[in-house]
Amino acid sequence: MSDARSKLQDLKTRLIEVSDVEYANAILGWDQSTYMPAGGAAARARQSATLSQIAHEKFTDPAIGRLLDDLWPYEESLPYDADDAALIRVARREYERALKVPPDFMARLSSHMAASYQLWTAARPANDFARMQPNLEKTLELSRQLAEFFAPYEHIADPLIDWADYGMKASTISAIFAQLRSELIPIVEVIASQPIADDSCLRQQYPEAEQWAFAVEVIKRFGYDFDRGRMDKTHHPFMTKFSLGDVRITTRVDEGYLGEMIFSAMHEAGHAMYELGICADYEGLPLAHGASAGAHESQSRLWENLVGRSRPFWNFFYPRLQAFFPQQLGGVSLDAFYRAVNKVHRSLIRTDADEVTYNLHVMLRFDFELALLEGRLAVADLPEAWRARYQTDLGIASPDDRDGVLQDVHWYGGIIGGSFQGYTLGNIMAAQFQQAALAAHPDIPAQIARGEFGVLHDWLRENIYRPGMKFTPSELVERVSGQPLSIEPYIAYLRTKYGELYGVWGSFLH
Amino acid sequence: MSDARSKLQDLKTRLIEVSDVEYANAILGWDQSTYMPAGGAAARARQSATLSQIAHEKFTDPAIGRLLDDLWPYEESLPYDADDAALIRVARREYERALKVPPDFMARLSSHMAASYQLWTAARPANDFARMQPNLEKTLELSRQLAEFFAPYEHIADPLIDWADYGMKASTISAIFAQLRSELIPIVEVIASQPIADDSCLRQQYPEAEQWAFAVEVIKRFGYDFDRGRMDKTHHPFMTKFSLGDVRITTRVDEGYLGEMIFSAMHEAGHAMYELGICADYEGLPLAHGASAGAHESQSRLWENLVGRSRPFWNFFYPRLQAFFPQQLGGVSLDAFYRAVNKVHRSLIRTDADEVTYNLHVMLRFDFELALLEGRLAVADLPEAWRARYQTDLGIASPDDRDGVLQDVHWYGGIIGGSFQGYTLGNIMAAQFQQAALAAHPDIPAQIARGEFGVLHDWLRENIYRPGMKFTPSELVERVSGQPLSIEPYIAYLRTKYGELYGVWGSFLH
User: Fold this and answer.
1) Out of B37, B46, B228, whose CB is closest to A228?
2) Which of A488, A505, A504, A500 is closest to A183 using CA atoms?
3) N vs C: which end of chain A shows fewer Cβ within 10 Å?
4) Beta B246-251 vs B231-233: how paired, if at all?
């Protein structure tokens, strides 16, 4: 056993070294998006590639494989949820995955993705899908090859989904999504038959400094700790982590639309609080990450939507917001404002979509990923298929590719497969987690209405954040809610909230 | 020869990889000083140490030694000043140096320096040399050990000096400094016998935003390119480089003293323009650095003092400065302002010292380094020796250690030996370089008086910046000025400028 302890220590030292290089690379990425002058771009790409390669080499060192082999009996001797057992289990899973992909393939893929992203930044504004098409065909080919390294599989998308949402499969997700879709479509149709909500109060001139100050006040009250994080401006908001003591967020400000920055700050703060809440003992180890893309999104969406677009939240914060913007909001009632931030309408752009229609955007992308990977759909036919599906699912005609098939960066700066399901899984999980939190602490809404978020944050930290990657997403859902993943809490949440908002209680009853 | 070319390519690839890791580490350092939240400190120290170690391992890879051996005949076949010859020569010099220091010693030294620096940040404000003494004794011991790895040497300080100012020795520097001292002391005494200049105009309330805007205007006109750099705030100003396309500076602002930020910005911009002017072909290679600490300081001091405290400079910029600060400077004449920014007075703090007395601060530190390394002076006796020397050289009594022996970070965050001579070598070189620039372009002062810095900047770029480390500092001085390093241009500069300023022409004549 003392031999096992020393081997475990050796393993940890090696894993921490790998994480040092990975986090250093994350710092390079953050700097690139925030403060790097244009002249730094060429060298930065090379430096980042070098660090990736070093991290990969160090992680796939056969010495790590030997340690993992030697530690098997020790792992078996421990309870499943012991930290050491989880560490060895997760490290082995990631080690085996890393070994399956040849480093030169990874390098080719990275370089293709970087070039593709560059091309996309020009092709999207130019509405030029034709320019992207050969590129996207190459991406599809590489995505398929990547999946092949993990053969055999049930569905070719499975290994790619597994990477983001461990343990999930195309078949299980398709089943959940089909169920969700059948519930959502009628809800969206009922709402669409009502007068569209008026959000013009959000579309006034809102100076940046005041938006920033308000958002900082909100996320500080949520519990985002500025001694262990910070917020900067970037073109696209994101969360990034350099250690469990330094988890940063970024945002963007639209002075003509209040809905952009404050909700994006809450969203990213939700991601950040997840990482900041992970058990400090896991620092630098593979356990020190959120459980999955879906689990992560559950936390960003929980704080952004379930809290940040809720009535109790605005009960407390609306007077404060009005104090920041007396001219703009002095004459707008809480009721009107609440309706504005929860306006449901069928729109073209996923990232602008409301809580209800959002999942329709995600699910059609997920379906396209399966169809492309299976070969049922050719890249050349994608724009047309996209338009058709937006017509069917959302009842709107996409006037161009810019705001159609070119709108999301995912396929142009990443792979095809596994890129989107996490968003909807996150919405589903968020409601299921919230239901569990409310069962434990029914007074949370009342606390929120007083601007108090400590009980909710503590509950989330203890139950969801602390274990990090110790459990699979399915295990996490089971442990937290006592149930397998289910769309019911989510649908119930939507029915209640939007039934009330649109005065359509009756229509939503089964 | 095609074999040599492929080996050279291999060497370059390896050296660039090392630089990628080193520059990544520099980004970590920049972030730590500018934006990192407090919670990131612990992990950051570890991440930075990991990158240092990886860079060291990669650089001391025996494969690099073999390539350097194999490339010897190729190097010999080239002219001395061919880029490839210089690359192989400089890489070999640094490789051999790196090999001489055992990695575990380097790790011990780094960790001691980090701990010592932490201790100093508390001990200096507490005026507590006793707390630092055992630490400094350890630093001295480690500095001696470091030097021993390079035995035999003429003087134990030589290897440490050589690290910063390649090719320089304690004996040559002592000789130059003795000569400089004998010239400086009488100049300082004559000035001290005159009424002290009035710089109260600098000590008013100067809001940060305007100071910042003015400094940016100045350094942009100098030619510091904000597309390849940026300026941020830090506790101590510095320049740092992540590639030849991304060279950043930092500054600090004292709203109660105009002299701090604007000159520090010019100083750091001088360092940055040096790096930005290095031949782009050297990107990522050992040639892509300034020739030495002294050569680097020559450029920061040239822009800060020879340009930034000159009459032609203020002829152009003073009206602009007045426009930024009409209340503070509207009633202050150019003459009075020019005298204020060139006030000479014997003071306690090196970094606050004027152009004339500055070198006295440096030279006594240099002498102390030699005495400590030789064992002629014990660390315990240093504070007393410090006070005595300030009395002798500057005629002032140091009231405490805080602003005495504890004032500079160098010995507390670094080694003893080679830390200070570069500042005075830089002043000497700056005047020698300026003399050569003026010989080539006598109209430079007139251009400066019109706010035009292009001819000077181009001349410096072509003659000093472009070659990077291709030449040793002595070679550089010879090539640029046609003379060996000499204090004469510097003394002539001081005599002319301060003779005129203090109306003491006669006293300065030999």
Assistant:
1) B37
2) A488
3) C
4) parallel
pTM: 0.95
Selected catalytic residue, list A260, A268, A275, A369: A268
- Nearest-CA distance A468 → chain B (Å): 18
List the B231-233 sheet strands across, edge first.
B231-233, B246-251, B239-243
Contact A291, A283 (CB under 8 A): no
Separation CA B163–CA B160 (nearest Å): 5
Nearest chain A residue to B245 by CA: give it.
A39
Number of residues assigned to chain A: 510
Task: List CB contacts of B313: < 8 A, sequence separation 6 or more.
Answer: B307, B448, B449
The reply to whether A210 belongs to the active site is no
Closest CA to B170 of B464, B468, B376: B376
Return d(Cα B327, Cα A202) in angstroms, integer: 42
Selecting from A31, A43, A284 the residue whose C-beta is nearest the C-beta of B283 gives A43
Nearest by Cα to A445 from A274, A314, A294: A314
| Chain A residues in contact with chain B using a Cβ-Cβ cutoff of 8 Å | 16-17, 20-21, 23-25, 27-28, 30-31, 35-44, 46-47, 50-51, 54, 225-230, 232, 242-246, 248, 283-284
Contacts of A47 in chain B (CB under 8 A): 20, 23-24, 242-243
Q: Is 70 exceeded by the pLDDT of residue A308? A: yes
- Confirm if A287 and A91 have CB atoms less than 8 A apart: no
Alpha-carbon gap, residue B431 to B489, rounded angstroms: 5
Q: How confident is the model at residue A2 (pLDDT cuts 50, 70, 90)?
A: confident
* pLDDT band (50, 70, 90) for residue A502: confident
Measured CA to CA, the distance from residue B97 to residue B113 in angstroms comes to 20
Q: Which residues of B are catalytic?
A: 268
- pLDDT beyond 70 at A1: no
Residue A407 amino acid letter:
Q
**Do the Cβ atoms of B229 and A37 come within 8 Å?**
yes
Q: What is the DSSP letter of A419?
A: S
- Which residues are CB-contacts of B110 (< 8 A; sequence separation ≥ 6)? B49, B52
Encoded tokens for A397: 């005609």
With vertex at residue B225, the alpha carbon angle to CA B219 and CA B231, rounded to the nearest 5 degrees, is: 65
User: Amino acid identity of A385?
Assistant: A
Predicted local confidence at residue A508, as pLDDT: 66
Angstroms from A469 CA to nearest CA on chain B: 20
Total CB pairs under 8 A between chain A and B? 127
> What ipTM does this complex have?
0.94
Q: Give the 3-state secondary structure of residue B249.
A: strand
Would you call B20 and A50 a contact, using CB atoms and an 8 Å cutoff? yes
Strand partners, A233: A251
Question: What does the alpha-carbon distance between residue B388 and residue B216 come to, in Å, rounded to a whole number?
Answer: 41
Task: Say how far apart CA A249 and CA A252 lie, in whole Å.
Answer: 11
- Give Cα B113 distance to the centre of its chain: 20
Strand A231-233 to A246-251 pairing:
parallel
Residue with the larger pLDDT of the pair B338 and B115: B338
Is B50's CB within 8 Å of A20's CB?
Answer: yes
Asked if the model's pLDDT at residue A510 lies above 60, the reply is: no
Rounded alpha-carbon distances, angstroms, from residue B509 to B186, B348, B431, B489, B492? 11, 28, 19, 15, 10
Which residues, including other chains, have CB under 8 Å from residue A241's CB and lie 6 or more apart?
A23, A26, A247, A248, A272, A275
Coil vs helix vs strand at B212: helix
**DSSP assignments along A304-340, one per residue:** IIIITTSHHHHHHHHHHHHHH-HHHHTTS-HHHHHHH
- Calculate the alpha carbon distances from B489 to A162, B427, B430, B495 in Å: 71, 10, 9, 10
